[in-house]
């Protein structure tokens, strides 16, 4: 027998909704794949291209700061911080080229405390985490860092990344 158009559409809708519900059951809600960023990867998200997301890393955590485009976009006051791990610059509240690095050696206790405060109350509070720098996830020899702990991403496991 032939199906009426309405029955056919109802059946199609049911199949689509059923498969969508099944996919949702297998994937935790609100999780996105986590990326590992090399310095070269991160440099592509430096706020210079319209329509391209703007990323910056602090303490090896890569944040999407696109919503702060007025601060981090092209020609904006803090554009020097994006497209790289700017941990030292954040700790020192500096935009000097020598401070635009992940290196925290020689920072004072006060600067380290300021870094932690800004990391938690500004970056983690305001911007989504999109990944981690390779320095955070990998050892110097390129092997996975077994001590790696993701920030607020309970569904992330290193196995998904390698």
From TrEMBL:
Residues 37-134 form the Cytochrome b5 heme-binding domain. It is found in: Endoplasmic reticulum. It comes from the Eukaryota. Keywords: Endoplasmic reticulum, Heme, Iron, Metal-binding, Signal. Its main location: endoplasmic reticulum. Gene3D superfamilies: Cytochrome b5-like heme/steroid binding domain. Residues 1-21 form the signal peptide. Pfam families: Cyt-b5. GO terms for molecular function: metal ion binding. Coiled coil: none annotated. GO terms for cellular component: endoplasmic reticulum; membrane. Belongs to the cytochrome b5 family. MAPR subfamily. PANTHER family: MEMBRANE-ASSOCIATED PROGESTERONE RECEPTOR COMPONENT-RELATED, NEUDESIN. This is Neudesin. It comes from Acipenser ruthenus (Sterlet sturgeon).
């Amino acid at each position: 027998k032939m199906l009426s158009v309405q029955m056919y559409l109802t059946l199609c809708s049911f199949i689509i909704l059923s498969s969508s519900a099944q996919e949702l059951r297998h994937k935790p809600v609100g999780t996105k794949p986590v990326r590992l960023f090399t310095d070269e990867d991160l440099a592509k998200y430096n706020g210079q291209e319209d329509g391209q997301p703007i990323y910056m890393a602090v303490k090896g955590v890569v944040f999407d700061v696109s919503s702060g485009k007025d601060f981090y976009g092209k020609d904006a006051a803090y554009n020097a911080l994006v497209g790289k791990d700017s941990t030292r610059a954040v700790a020192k509240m500096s935009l000097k080229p020598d401070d635009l690095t992940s290196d925290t050696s020689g920072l004072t206790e006060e600067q380290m405390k300021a870094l932690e405060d800004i990391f938690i109350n500004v970056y983690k509070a305001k911007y989504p985490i999109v990944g981690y720098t390779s320095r955070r996830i990998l050892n110097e020899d390129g092997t996975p860092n077994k001590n790696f702990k993701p920030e607020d991403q309970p569904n992330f496991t290193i196995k998904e990344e390698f």
